[in-house]
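Re: [ENG-882] Designed sequences occasionally contain unexpected residues at chain ends

Forwarding the minimal case from QA. Structure tokens:
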């Protein structure tokens, strides 16, 4: 995942001083923001768990409401919004020009495609463990049907380019969780276009940097809201009533529901968190919002969690909006003291080494876990009893194999690609 699960630890820079950014923008910062890799690892394992449970233990998942673990993916979107918008916000506050778009594009492409292509090609042609038809249809009976090797030229091309999620006939084919990478790529394209408006106005108006930074945030929110409203308007004409097919099936509504148009707001609150973080770091935001950030974010998470749970239970398309808001609050809760140049014990605890490591290799783990789930099932390594104990066993098996495979592709593919990206001027 590119935050995707999606961004690497080297994606971010954090100031450890409260001096104005204009005087510290070029000062060397730590290689990562402390406290975010561990939660990324937890989110990755949550997504893995819900897929393992859904595939082999659907009754257990239903009884214990474990489907909630799937919301870990929304945390990745919020985290992408925070990390990728952060360097743009820093430069905007410092009166610097917009990051180079060519360098930005190279970094984004090398972040996603090398690992994705290697894993997809291996899963398709060697493991033969990808979906050759829509996953929601193929998994209706939680069987191995609909799986194998993609050979249709157009569907294969769609998966190789990550454009498959734009076509009903291709949606949820290949490595089915890869739809989130399609969404991430759309975000990568939209963000510099929207941020460009702010940088353009910064040179031609007297509008303050905090206000200018909110333009992309507001635009992203509007895109997501209008997309959700339009997708909802297409439900009745579609004639489809099954919630699973409306969300994931091979139809127009599912394509809209998985699209950037409908889910842009999932990145919004992470972007807003980056504006707040930089405003505090830069000294523009003071008072209780800054000094009591951990308190108000912690308190705000309580009602947001309640609303999110209600919307999830109702299968509302607005559930991801509130989960994203809660994710952004969690990010600020963890790193709040860092913006004030202080240490954060919670950030240190959150980056517990094993979870931090999984967070660092989360893109590979995320992409491997479903083909691995299929393969270990074929090998007979999974317990097919629909019980909590069986689900726990299956989770451990799939997690161990996925992390092992993820370690290999991270070291041999992801890491070299990231090192190549660093040869270009940093945009962060």
């Amino acid at each position: 995942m590119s935050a995707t699960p999606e961004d690497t630890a080297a994606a971010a820079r954090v100031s450890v001083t409260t001096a104005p950014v204009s005087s510290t923008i070029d000062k060397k910062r730590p290689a990562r923001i402390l406290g975010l890799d561990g939660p990324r690892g937890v989110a990755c394992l949550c997504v893995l768990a819900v897929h393992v449970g859904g595939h082999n233990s659907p009754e257990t998942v239903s009884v214990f409401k474990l489907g909630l673990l799937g919301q870990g993916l929304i945390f990745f979107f919020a985290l992408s919004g925070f990390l990728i918008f952060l360097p743009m916000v820093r430069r905007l506050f410092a009166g610097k020009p917009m990051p180079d778009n060519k360098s930005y594009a190279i970094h984004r492409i090398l972040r996603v495609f090398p690992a994705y292509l290697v894993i997809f090609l291996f899963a398709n042609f060697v493991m033969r463990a990808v979906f050759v038809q829509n996953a929601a249809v193929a998994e209706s009976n939680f069987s191995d049907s609909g799986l194998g090797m993609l050979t249709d030229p157009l569907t294969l091309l769609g998966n190789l380019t990550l454009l498959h999620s734009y076509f009903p006939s291709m949606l949820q084919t290949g490595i089915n969780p890869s739809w989130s990478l399609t969404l991430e790529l759309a975000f990568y394209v939209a963000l510099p276009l929207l941020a460009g408006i702010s940088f353009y106005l910064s040179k031609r108006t007297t509008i303050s940097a905090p206000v200018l930074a909110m333009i992309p945030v507001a635009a992203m929110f509007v895109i997501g809201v209008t997309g959700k409203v339009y997708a909802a308007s297409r439900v009745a004409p579609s004639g489809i009533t099954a919630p699973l097919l409306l969300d994931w099936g091979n139809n127009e509504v599912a394509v809209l529901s998985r699209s950037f148009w409908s889910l842009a707001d999932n990145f919004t609150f992470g972007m807003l968190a980056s504006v707040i973080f930089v405003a505090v770091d830069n000294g523009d935001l003071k008072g209780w919002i800054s000094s009591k950030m951990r308190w108000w974010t912690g308190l705000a998470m309580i009602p947001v969690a309640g609303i999110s749970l209600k919307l999830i239970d109702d299968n509302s398309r607005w559930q991801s909006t509130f989960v994203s808001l809660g994710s952004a609050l969690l990010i600020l809760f963890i790193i709040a003291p860092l913006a004030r140049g202080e240490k954060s014990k919670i950030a240190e605890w959150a980056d517990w080494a094993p979870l931090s490591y999984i967070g660092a290799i989360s893109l590979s783990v995320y992409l491997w876990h479903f083909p691995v789930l299929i393969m270990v099932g074929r090998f007979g390594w999974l317990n097919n009893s629909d019980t909590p104990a069986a689900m726990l066993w299956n989770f451990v098996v799939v997690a161990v194999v996925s992390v092992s495979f993820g370690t290999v592709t991270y070291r041999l593919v992801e890491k070299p690609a990231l090192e190549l990206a660093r040869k270009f001027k940093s945009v962060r």
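QA comment: On inspection the terminal residues look reasonable. The radius of gyration is 21 Å. Proposing we downgrade this to a documentation issue.
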